[in-house]
């Protein structure tokens, strides 16, 4: 088996596969020094294949922090940034993401996905462990591997200490310098009735209140330190807050706070009393949702990367609550501050673009929300889509798409909505004239969609990753994330941009038309077993883009192996595979249990004599440490 094939970790350890050297265009967090695996012999090396816009990749950055701290003298983590979107491959964009998400290890820019191909990576994120002698000993795709990785590193350190092949100290990490600005990577903003602007200062871990001039900071909520502490405005701590919404005054009086904050990396919603500055947790346990029920008492339900929040009043066709863009599991949630409950409003947790009944629709990292004319507009970042949800007349809701097609096509193109293209939009607002403004983040542009004509135009360009829009009186501001500021917009003119249609480019897997055996390889982490106490411990869901690619085998089941049938009339497309597995500690009185989950979008080319089997590795179990 060559390194260009998917390699389960057990096979890697057994075959003693040498880790390929790292290749890319430049390095970050190394003082511009190039790193080579050969020079890191004696260290345990953890390669994190990521892309900055992927929410699962952002989760993994957080999961790795305690491991990096615990094994700081023996472990070198290297982020291999292999981009999905064109913008993500630019050095400036990667540098911004590294600072914004607090990445404290070296990062390699792999824009042509050279290292990605050398390691046969199939999905973001994927983690690869290289032992001190330069061999691959562990591979794990997806998130939720923190404890298993900690065990792997500990075993490797012990084994190679005994062999005399472990080297301590000498970290190659060199921290970059951050500019001194009032805001650090702000995400969203809202305007108060008095004309002030509240801004989510994401990398500043707080909320800043600006005077009506949008330049003078009046006060701040949050100490500026990453954390989850409730309390007074200068004591409370938040973690990468993003979305903001103000409650109606009558509701605010009943619940005791005025502002709801989507505390994204803290996986909670926070309430802020604007009269005294007190910050409290109003929804979420602080633990990231992985699986199971996401409905119940607000403080008892786990959330996952809430990215935006927006009050949707009954008078505007809504359910009378705070809609939550739950980017972490591709759903929309509903928080009722009066009843203090949370429930799912739309989405299935499968990442994709599918319209229809809200409970059957596919969403893809919803990142911005806005109410207008009896509907809730939202942008799905990963499908580069502008969409909306509205009532169906029978107490339910339906999801529709205005702009966007699937997970893999994007660009900057104006015109009729069916023809128009966006690139990873993160913000949306209903403008004073009733049109819909879109913060087209990775195009550095503000776009405008007219529901009456179905036309899309560009009203501003050359911005640094705009992630939010806010209407304040007669003015409209862009939250220019990459420039750390609020930027006033002139919406009087619109340009028509005819950019190229782009698509995600990854090596295609050649499969045969007809029957194909699909296998997801999952080995429980060291010291664990599959948890079947309450029924099947695994789940596999399969779909395709275009849907015609898949003749048989779509849908969900508990078996991680499935026979699918591909059409011979569709020459290329993408298989969308979602797998998860529950595992628990072996023979423990109080076992620790976890759910491992991974989404794949596998580009395939269908040929008559192509392969009849596709294997995907969700998690790996190394052989004996140092084998």
UniProtKB/TrEMBL annotation:
Keywords: Repeat
Cell wall biogenesis/degradation found in the keyword field: no
Gene3D superfamilies: Glutaredoxin (3.40.30.10), TolB, C-terminal domain (2.120.10.30)
PANTHER family linked: NHL REPEAT-CONTAINING PROTEIN 2 (PTHR46388)
Protein name: Thioredoxin-like domain-containing protein
UniProt repeat feature NHL, residue ranges: 422-452
Thioredoxin domain boundaries: 1-158
CDD domains: NHL-2_like
Pfam families listed in its UniProt record: NHL, Thioredoxin_8
Membrane-crossing residue ranges in chain numbering: none
Top-level taxonomic group: Bacteria
Endpoints of the signal sequence: none
């Amino acid at each position: 088996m060559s390194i260009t094939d998917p390699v389960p970790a057990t096979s890697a350890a057994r075959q003693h596969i040498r880790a390929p050297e790292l290749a890319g265009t430049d390095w970050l967090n190394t003082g511009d020094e190039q790193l080579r695996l050969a020079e890191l012999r004696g260290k345990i090396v953890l390669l994190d294949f990521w892309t900055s816009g992927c929410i699962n990749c952002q989760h993994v950055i957080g999961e790795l922090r305690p491991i990096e701290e615990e094994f700081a003298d023996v472990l070198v983590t290297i982020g291999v940034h292999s981009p999905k979107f064109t913008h993500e491959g630019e050095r400036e964009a990667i540098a911004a993401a590294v600072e914004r998400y607090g990445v404290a290890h070296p990062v390699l820019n792999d824009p042509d996905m050279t290292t990605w191909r050398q390691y046969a990576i199939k999905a973001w994120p994927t983690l690869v462990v290289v032992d001190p002698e330069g061999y691959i000993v562990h591979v794990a795709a997806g998130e939720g591997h923190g404890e298993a990785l900690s065990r792997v590193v500990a075993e490797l350190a012990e084994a190679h200490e005994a062999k005399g092949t472990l080297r301590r100290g000498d970290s190659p990490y060199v921290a970059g310098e951050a500019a001194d600005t009032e805001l650090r990577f702000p995400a969203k903003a809202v305007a108060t009735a008095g004309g002030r602007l509240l801004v989510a200062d994401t990398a500043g871990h707080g909320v800043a209140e600006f005077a009506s001039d949008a330049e003078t900071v009046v006060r701040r909520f949050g100490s500026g330190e990453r954390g989850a502490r409730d309390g007074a405005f200068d004591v409370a701590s938040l973690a990468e807050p993003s979305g903001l919404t103000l409650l109606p005054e009558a509701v605010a009086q009943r619940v005791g706070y005025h502002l709801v904050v989507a505390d994204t990396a803290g996986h909670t919603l926070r309430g802020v009393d604007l009269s005294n500055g007190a910050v409290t947790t109003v929804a979420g346990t602080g633990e990231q949702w992985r699986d199971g029920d996401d409905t119940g008492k607000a403080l008892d339900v786990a959330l996952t990367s809430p990215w935006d929040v927006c009050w949707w009043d009954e008078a505007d066709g809504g359910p009378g609550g705070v809609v939550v863009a739950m980017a972490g599991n591709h759903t929309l949630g509903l928080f009722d501050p009066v009843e203090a409950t949370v429930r799912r409003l739309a989405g299935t947790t499968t990442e994709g673009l599918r319209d229809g009944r809200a409970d059957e629709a596919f969403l893809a990292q919803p990142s911005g929300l806005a109410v207008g004319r009896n509907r809730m507009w939202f942008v799905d970042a990963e499908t580069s889509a502008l969409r909306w949800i509205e009532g169906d007349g029978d107490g339910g809701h339906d999801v529709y798409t205005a702009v966007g097609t699937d997970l893999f096509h994007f660009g900057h193109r104006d015109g009729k909505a069916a023809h128009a293209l966006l690139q990873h939009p993160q913000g949306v607002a209903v403008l004073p004239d009733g049109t819909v403004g879109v913060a087209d983040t990775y195009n550095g542009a503000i776009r405008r969609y007219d529901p009456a004509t179905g036309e899309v135009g560009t009203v501003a360009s050359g911005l640094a990753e705009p992630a939010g829009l806010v209407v304040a009186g007669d003015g409209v501001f862009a939250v220019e994330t990459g420039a750390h500021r609020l930027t006033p917009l002139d919406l009087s003119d619109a340009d028509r941009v005819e950019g190229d249609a782009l698509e995600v480019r990854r090596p295609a897997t050649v499969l045969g038309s007809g029957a194909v055996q699909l296998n997801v390889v999952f080995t429980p982490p060291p010291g664990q077993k599959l948890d079947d106490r309450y029924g099947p411990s695994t789940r596999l869901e399969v779909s395709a883009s275009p849907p015609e690619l898949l003749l048989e085998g779509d849908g969900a089941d508990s078996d991680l192996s499935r026979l699918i049938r591909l059409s011979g009339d569709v020459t290329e497309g993408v298989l969308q595979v979602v797998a998860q597995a529950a595992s628990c500690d072996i023979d423990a009185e109080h076992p620790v249990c976890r759910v491992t989950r991974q989404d794949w979008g596998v580009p395939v080319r269908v040929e008559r004599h192509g392969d009849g089997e596709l294997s995907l590795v969700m998690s790996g179990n190394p052989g004996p440490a140092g084998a």
